[in-house]
Predict the structure.
Amino acid sequence: MTVRAVEVIAEAEVIAYHSARHGRSIARSIAARHIRADHIEEALVYPVTTETTDHPGGYRGALDEFYAVAAARLAAHLDAGRTVAVLAEGDPLFYGSYMHMHKRLADRYPTEVIPGVTSVSAAAARLGTPLAEGEEVLTILPGTLPEEELTARLASTDAAVVMKLGRTFPRVRRAMESSGRLAEARYVERATMAGERTGRLADTDPESVPYFSVAVLPSRIGAPAGPDHTATAADADAGSGSDTGTGTGTGEVVVVGTGPAGPLWLTPETRGALASAEDLVGYTTYLERVPVRPGQRRHGSDNKVESERAEFALELARRGRRVAVVSGGDPGVFAMATAVLEAAAQEAYREVPVRVLPGVTAANAAAAKAGAPLGHDYAALSLSDRLKPWEVIAERLHAAAAADLVLALYNPGSRSRTWQVGKARELLLEHRAPDTPVVLARDVGGPEESVRIVRLADLDPSAVDMRTILLVGSSQTRVVRRGDGQEVVWTPRRYPET
Ligand code: SAH
């Protein structure tokens, strides 16, 4: 308890506290030695503890009525000129019952909220490990969230505290496991109180877990190596050179995509994989989208050496390192996943685990910005003739255009590849009307984003570069100007005559 809390209790005439039915108030027991015989006590006892009630408004209705009655009881004291101290365990505005009184009374009576020490701080203190350091993100989660939601949040955060365990414990444990965080997870029960217990979450018997406990993922900066975190500090300090280092455990390669641009486009799974990797391998442009982390090694290269990069990543993993290979967009769309799997087919890398995580590909990002041009059947093609002859590209363009597919054209051009877009336009005009809508999307999600809708006949090759994707409409694709002046484009899901 803070000094200020003790002072306020001493000055108050009325001491109020919430408690569960049949239950003692934990807040009251913490404050017990400051409560005097001449204090008037107001025990605000919850009418329900589970979600079963015969109240006509259900659980919600029963609670609302309870809060209204409780607030009226406190208001009666306040109207009589008495000072009321409401006890709240931890901090009053942090998942506490007090806030229901606050919302009903604070606008009518002078109110002072005295901050308290939350279970989050208490748990970290009792574990004696840093909770969040530097730029780490700390996430606080109620264990009552759905398991999938917990998994996603745990996968994507650095540090975390999960509150409200008890019956939720098995689900929280499963979420820790599926997010790959179980080995780091700690358990703290009744922090700073009698009966306190701390330990590894994985070793905690679910049957023994009360509501009054939290799960903690402490800071991972400089954290000692756990069973699934086996690189040594010496490895991490070995610098960012091209040496492959040695790990002592089971390495793996995770192939991830950043989406088209910055962090908004990262999936929680990818964010987590990037954070827990020991080595990042990729084209420098994509690596730059990933925040620098202490202890993590970055191996940037230019975008022309895919197979070397893939082998380098596999070699690191074979020596026990956790490696993330970073692509833009989705790693399986004209990107590194294939290169890694191709290299992994070699005998030497047969046993190296490889996982591919999906990302938001440029076509989907661009389509969303323009409306829904990919709403019906479409084909994705790369216009780059670096890895396949132009004749093959031309044949496929003809076939896809003749099939009336919407086309997502990746790699339409670059500084050294300037004629492909013009050729493609001529070829497509053999099948499509001149005013077929084309979405010309550049740097989607990035600082230079531009998304324009042009006519196929007006498609200007000089408007296209390496960071551009083209979405060419089918015969059915429509453009409409909305009330705000914006044009949107979509391809109907229904074909005429159906
Ligand atoms: N794996 C990536 C594609 C790599 S090929 C993905 O799934 O998106 C590279 C091409 O992707 C670029 O030439 C361009 O056509 C497209 N592209 C990638 N990011 C883009 C962005 N932010 N805006 C527009 N096009 C993009």
In short: DSSP finds 15 helices and 21 strands in the chain.
